[in-house]
Amino acid sequence: MRWLPGLLLLLSTAWAQAGGRLAIIIDDLGNSYPPAQAVLQLPTAVTVSILPRLAWSRRIADDARRQGRESMLHQPMDSLAHRALGPGGLSLDHTRVDLEAVLKANLASVPHVSGVNNHMGSLLTREGKNMRWFMHGLQQHGGLYFVDSRTNAASRAYRTAVDFGVPAASRDVFLDNERDPDIIRRQLYRAVRLARLKGAAIAIGHPYPETVQVLAKELPLLHRQGIELEPVSRIIDYQRSSRTWRASSSPLHKVAKNSKR
Question: How many CB atoms lie within 10 A of CB 234?
């Protein structure tokens, strides 16, 4: 068994060098400019998600575009706790016409976005009818993608987006449910491990000083570890191509299954 330590070292080295793609989204921008300025100092592959109709929403979106940085609309949605939605929020009380009108106005208030993710939404995202209305409305705005922030395990948002042909993904890790730099760092490397295992992963954080500090230090190190930091759209493209490849391989499995009849 003398060879065992060497094998373990080889396997751990191979694991450390295994590649993967990682997207980082920073939510909740728009209320204040200084936190956004700090976020905009992070690598431009970091995607920013901007709340609608706030004092700094448009300027932050413009700044992101000048940097060549991908941005998203951070769409407020009803939560189970019935927290205040703020401007442009979507609730169960909205009719289909109202919902689509609110979404259109929100997108106008945050220009240049490539996609949308939900802010809160633990209530609304589990409602199939409302999510169908939402995805139909999203279809009207020219190729935007959707990321399910997964604030509720019963969310139907991702599945509904896929059913409507909207490019979509789901959040894998929240970075900063606890604003402790050590915990944020552990969550970041949890996302890195998932990126290696799955090929790609998405992590969501917020413009807290602790989060920005950890990301500013750790993100430049990821490339040496075989992890490519990419905007959300590229993660979605990768995941869609991967699903297409698996689907194209599925007839082989069907033949094998049928042969057992």
Answer: 17
Bridge partner residues of 120 (DSSP) = 77
Contacts of 168 (CB under 8 A, 6+ apart): 145, 146, 147, 148, 158, 161, 162, 236
Residues 164, 135 contacting (CB under 8 angstroms): yes
The count of residues in the chain is: 261
- The 10 Å Cβ neighbour count of residue 252 is 9
The average pLDDT across 194-202 equals: 98
Q: Is 28 in contact with 49 (CB distance < 8 Å)? A: yes
How many whole angstroms separate alpha carbon 101 and alpha carbon 89? 11
pLDDT tens digits for 218-238?
Answer: 999 999 999 999 999 999 999
Is residue 20 within 8 Å of residue 228, measured between CB atoms?
yes
pTM as predicted: 0.88
Q: Please report the pLDDT score of residue 18 as a whole number.
A: 63
Q: Name the residue with tokens 């065992």.
A: 4
